[in-house]
Write a structure and sequence with these properties.
alpha/beta; single chain; five-stranded parallel beta sheet; Rossmann fold; 5 strands; disordered N terminus
């Protein structure tokens, strides 16, 4: 039974390098890796909301747009069947593995990633990892895996401040043909959430509702959507 397809990355307009407003050196490193200009793997560390998943998805999408075989794998969903998932990833140019900390303490998953890392090196795959801490601080029980993960370029992503999150949300809305003014942003950041992941999911719902109702994004319209869904 194949376990690759449910986890396959699908490119979308919400995950582009241009929308990442964090540190330029971090974005540039991922963009170069996606383009095949970096032979090493990258291990990116950061807290929730730092844009780690966004960078991985943008990398996979960019590689796909360039005609390279790439995939995004969320390890929080795949840890229980990781060996099967990784066995289906031969022949790819780029593999993006999100949330390595999800494997810590799972011996089978740790060994599966260790063997995949070795195979990826032999096949010339480029690997991008994200986690909440550096390899040695994740509680991984397999020393050889920690050693492998520490061999590549290690970077740290900072969490965006509110101004940065506002600009990201505006860009993502504009990419869908939606205008999001400061009054709307004020409402969302004070009444809904300041978490960019939650706000991005809400933008998906607002986009569909706006298209269905042929309405622009205003505070009263957003209130009506949230009231209806509630």
């Amino acid at each position: 039974m194949s376990t690759q397809l449910p986890l396959a990355f699908k490119a979308g307009t919400d995950h582009r390098f241009i929308d990442f407003l964090g540190q330029d050196p971090v974005r540039q490193a991922f963009e170069q890796a996606a383009e095949g200009k970096a032979a090493h793997h990258i291990f990116l560390v950061g807290a929730q909301g730092a844009g780690k998943t966004h960078l991985l998805r943008a990398s996979a999408g960019h590689a796909l747009a360039l005609g390279q075989a790439a995939v995004y794998v969320p390890l929080t969903r795949a840890s229980g069947m990781l060996a099967e998932v990784l066995d289906g990833l031969s022949g790819l140019a780029l593999v993006c593995l999100d949330d390595v900390q999800a494997l810590a303490g799972n011996r089978d998953a740790e060994e599966a990633l260790f063997h995949f890392y070795n195979r990826a090196g032999a096949e010339g795959m480029r690997l991008l990892f994200t986690a909440t801490a550096m390899p040695a601080q994740l509680g991984i029980g397999l020393p050889d895996l920690v050693s492998r993960l520490e061999q590549g370029l290690r970077l740290h992503a900072e969490v965006l401040d509110e101004y940065g999150k506002r600009r990201v949300l505006q860009r993502r809305a504009a990419g869908r043909g939606l205008q999001m003014d400061e009054a709307v942003l004020d409402y969302l950041f004070t009444r809904v959430s300041r978490d960019l992941h939650t706000l991005s999911q809400l933008l998906d719902r607002l986009d569909h509702a706006s298209l269905a109702a042929q309405r622009r994004l205003t505070v009263p319209f957003i209130k009506s959507v949230l009231h209806t869904e509630g």
